[in-house]
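I hope you will forgive my troubling you with a question about protein structure. Could you please explain, in whatever detail you think fit, how the structure tokens follow from the sequence? Thank you for your consideration; the sequence and its tokens are set out here.
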Amino acid sequence: MTLKEIFRTAMRSLRINPMRAMLSILGVIIGIASVIALIAMGEGVRNQITKEIQDLGTNLLVVRSGEPVSDTEGISGAQIEMLSQPDLGTSTITVQDLESARSSSYIDDAYPMIQMVYDIEAGGQDGGEAKQTRTFVKGTDGHYIEMNKVQVAHGRFLTTKASEGEEEEEGEEGAGETVLATLVAQTLFGSTGEDVLGREVVIKYLDPSSMEQKQKEFEVVGVMEERRVTVFNNPNLEMYIPIQDAQVLAGGYEDLVLEINAAVDSEDNIDAAKAALEQVIRSNHEGELDFNIQTQEDLMETYQYIFNVLTALVFGVATISLITGGVGVANIMYVSVKERTKEIGVRLAQGASKRMIILQFLFESILLCMLGALIGIPLGLFASFLINLSVLPATPTLWSILVAFGAAFMVGVLAGVFPARQATKVEITEALRAEF
């Protein structure tokens, strides 16, 4: 029995029961499509985040609370925790550290950041209906807009003077002012134009000291230009207030900030700037290293670790789908062996070797799974296209298609081995007496 005859026999078997063949490979089709779509989604998010971090610039240093993780410890949950926003009361970063950072060697500029989520309200006066929304409120200063190279469409940004700790007189500009992103302005006032300037916004917050619900009023002094939505967040859903007001809302910690973002004068001076910044901040903390300084490279390593974990989970889910599909193929192949007992007996009686019988059924199993791959791959690419249009960036890759083909082949081999071996255990005399 030649390989050509094996192929012809396998194709004839599929043509006899096309519906059964299609149902048997349905699990393989779903598994292969899942592999393509999930890998494409993971690769798309990876590429998007990499681009966004690069767009921030490779000369950015971020100072946060918490002891640094040593190289020997590797990337762990401690580093991942750095990506979250802790409570201001637990922060060890101070306003003095901010001023030290601005005067540190190799540092061009720096700005503070306190980010919280609050319910905000506008309107409700003169019989009008009040409108509410929940948004990210960022406490910072005028250096933020300069370092991030973003623009204000109408009005102005926060007054830098008030945010740098200089004494304010009652009614001075900078107290109780806010700048709204486009979607926040549209939600609250139905407009993103100049008519929003001078309007009043109320932030509702829980005072941590008294555990009472309070509110603070802010006057809109600016509306940001619309910005590109990223994987990290939607910057059009943000509201900016002076750092001192953010400290009040977060519990009245006048000297604390959550993080400091510092711009190095040159990419070549990253290491020197990091060492100098660590030294000046450490001197503020009586020599204690209760903070960490991350570069963009450190941030990428942290995200890379997260991506590796997610990739492993993706492959786990896809493997379960393929195993389920393989069980279906193995079941059909086992039934096929039982149904073709007399055919097997005839071939053995004609001198076919057991090896050729095994190859016949193994080839049929592999052929079924490869057909599943040929259908599942275009389906997965189409699903990736839809995901890319609607939910997340998805970038199909050639290696994911090769992985899908390889996985389909392995499933075909594993699903066909047992039924193929069962076929060779048939006694010729018993097989010849079997009914078709």
Notes: The CA atoms of residues 203 and 216 lie 5 Å apart.
